[in-house]
């Protein structure tokens, strides 16, 4: 035993020495590190730098695999809160669709709200490529179109400002709950409503969404619970300190002493008693109350909100950022969005300055979510930003949406004056190739005719052809000063049937004329249909009258065709020769002989077997309207010439500017209007002989549609249905849409590319506002000022509006084109182009035309051997 003891002592001494040596070396190492701390710091910095470099390389690689989708809402997009919430859940879930090696900063989905002056707001979603299928199918249904987005390449701007928004205020409190109507995006859209693309204005908002790190969230909850408990303990201690003093003060008060004397009964031990004071116990802290919105993990996300504004004009980018900052105030409650950084005199220290700028640009360009502080929100707080603009959002109109009118541009049609959100006004237009039919309604004097005149004058100066039909003639003197240009005078023709002055100059037109090579059956059909339309004939009510008229027209057209082939166009019959053909055997016999070789067997058989059985009374219904036309010297002169100066088909093809003033709305005028309208329809349809790409666009303007459609309802309706195919685009104006015949009204509204109304009675304009879903309401439209219009238009295949425009006034819009000194020269040129002659000269020629045609058919009557036997039976026609 004694021999072992020295060994144990020796081993113990050795172990103690080793421990002391280890401690000594550790102390020396610590002392060395203390003396050389910079080496440790350098090593840590190098390690952190290498790690950050690797993470950035991986993050850049992951960001290169991102995809982008663009969401385009329809006009009726009106999602529910549940649909928006489900979309938020999709976005949060899509943020995790990254490879396992991708850093957390790349695991985010980005919402991009972009405005550059070309569109009100572009709504894009960018995120992991693996989430494309998930994000392409939205809970919004067909009201939102999702398409693959193209990359956006921005040109450098001269002035750029950047901002990062952080959540400030109590971190456990939510942002303000913003209702869906009006749209929560409205303040942001209003802030960018006056962007100007020509100045390089740009504003973009990027909201990144990702799930928060669990360990950071747990740490924050522990901090919040600890802070809540400490606050409760401090409150309890404060109350405990002040409670004895408050109780003592109360017991020493006179009232309390009197109360004790009166309430205590006399007896042993009676006397005032001191109240026992118990110190308050700290209240239990409830997690839901202390943590607020951070209490649960469900639908809690971390967000990063970045904003950039740019412009080539100094000061506009800074002003835009201030507007956006004010727009985000709509979400302010006990928690709010605030710009990160601070101001130092005139300087703002933030992402625009070193050292924050480089990190901001990296996150902006690569889509990394690295907010400097945790911005934790619940999806319900982001409702306003999780969807595109809805139907409750008022969108501004940019030049890219509605082009600016440029004088002399044949691609554009003037529509009115648009006042932008910034108060700036511009002339807006639609594209001519998309404006197929147009309807303008409103009360008298509201400005619809002035607007149509401005559009027609602009179209004429751009080289377009048109016909302006105005029964009241007021539009012609109004338009004269603005059309009195040398380059236009050769294209303008005036067909004025008002007969003003002692010996007015009148143009001429032969509806039966064949000098232009029209198909005979089309001419006959056009006149017969015009008669039927103006006189309300149909196969049920007037079958015999229609048959007689058609047979007579067929013969006279055949005679005219023969005259033109013989080079004798001046010997053509007119519509007034129908009476002679039906009642005068000396004219009918040679006319039938002359036309026999151009008539089919059925027509010849009718003249042989049916006509002789008719009594003279059967012709009255056909001849009475013609007698009324002949009784008016102006219409007699206009329709009684063998060759006319009015040729609407030639006007279409040569881009003529034709003003037609029928002269009234009586029965005779309605028949004349019906003839003109049907001839316009026939001429437009005859353009099928021209290849579509070579058809020259032509625009008829019909003022006072109520008057015109009263004469030819079916004809006007057919124009709105058919003429688009022949590049003939109708513009109609009327005071009351409900007063139009049903076929016209239905065709007009169905096919209208542009629908406009001025103020009027609510009942009158309700039919127009109903086409817009009563937005605006009839009450709002009825209270507009004079010359104000609500207009809906088609641009690039999309409907724009209804938006409020001020009607263009000729004296303002075309002041530079006014030539009042050349008005008389234009009047003379317009009459010369229409081949107008003095009324007495035309009347004399019309009176002699019957004898001239009779001489022609007698002169060219073929020999008897060449004439069918039925025609030679004169007794059939006695």
Tag the structure with descriptive keywords.
878 residues; alpha+beta; nine-stranded antiparallel sheet; nine-stranded mixed sheet; 43% helix; elongated
Write a structural description.
The N and C termini lie far apart (173 Å). The chain has 31 helices and 24 strands. Strands 1, 2, 3, 4, 5, 6, 7, 8 and 11 form a nine-stranded antiparallel sheet that branches. A nine-stranded mixed sheet has the order 16-18-15-19-20-14-21-22-23, sandwiched between helices. Mean pLDDT is 86; it is low at 267-271, 864-870 and 872-878. 43% of the residues lie in helices and 16% in strands.
Low-confidence stretches: 267-271, 864-870, 872-878
Tell me about the largest β-sheet: 9 strands, antiparallel
Shape: elongated
End-to-end CA span: 173 Å
Strand content: 15-25%
Class from secondary-structure proportions: alpha+beta
Based on DSSP secondary structure assignment, what is the total number of beta strands?
24
What's this, in brief?
The chain has 878 residues and is of the alpha+beta class.
Please specify the SSE layout and strand pairing.
Elements: H1 5-35, H2 37-63, E1 66-73, H3 81-94, E2 109-115, E3 122-128, H4 132-136, E4 144-148, E5 159-169, H5 186-191, E6 202-210, H6 214-251, H7 254-263, H8 287-291, E7 300-311, H9 316-327, E8 335-339, E9 342-344, E10 347-349, H10 356-366, E11 376-378, E12 412-419, E13 425-431, E14 438-441, H11 448-461, E15 465-469, H12 475-483, H13 486-489, E16 492-496, E17 505-506, H14 520-535, H15 543-565, H16 577-583, H17 585-595, H18 601-610, H19 620-631, H20 633-639, H21 648-653, E18 657-661, H22 667-685, E19 698-702, H23 705-711, H24 713-722, E20 731-734, H25 742-751, E21 754-757, H26 762-771, H27 778-782, E22 788-795, E23 798-806, H28 810-813, H29 823-833, E24 837-838, H30 839-859, H31 869-872
Parallel strand pairs: 14-20, 14-21, 15-18, 15-19, 16-18, 19-20
Antiparallel strand pairs: 1-3, 1-4, 2-3, 2-6, 5-7, 5-8, 6-7, 7-11, 9-10, 12-13, 17-24, 21-22, 22-23
Helix pairs in contact: 1-2, 11-12, 14-15, 14-22, 15-16, 15-17, 16-17, 20-30, 22-23, 22-24, 23-24, 24-25
